[in-house]
User: Fold this.
Amino acid sequence: MIELEKDDGLWIATINRPDKANSLTAEMLEELAEIAEAAQEARVLILTGRGKVFSAGADLEAAKAGLATSPLWERLSGAIAALPGLSIAALNGTLAGGAMGMALACDLRLAVPGAKFFYPVMKLGFLPQPSDPGRMAALIGPARTKLILMGGQKILAEEALQMGLIDRIAEPDTLLDTAREIAADTLAARPEIAAQIKALCTN
Assistant:
């Protein structure tokens, strides 16, 4: 249910479970983490999904079995954040719950018009994954982070762009092309130069 395409330094990982809103089982989450860990050798990693939802977070049955608080989420986002190359979340639709972490850990986030962003962890009785609030606050500030995590607000793509939660809006049929276009210069550059520029941007 996780597809991986490799093309000369470009890796595209696609969540393919559209009949279940691309909700993640423990096996899918572990596979994503393994891909992100292996992508140390990639120049660019793009995360996307099939259908009209990027991911609804944890699969309901898996969440009841403990996946909602699994360390796998943090393992995945940590591996993405540690990548020396460029990471792009090409969000083909709504992003919810724990799945927010992998997008927050990416360097860039693109989304289709009308995509919604929400993280209803508090009303479900859980804490967010440890690194998620800090990464979100770094993008949109503490107050807006509380608006999402404590106020339970659903943010539409257009407002998310204004906030800085996402970096660009692209139509569904051009989403991946837009991600590839953004990735082109990094793919053409010497990997060590790209890695050093990324380090300079984050220090």
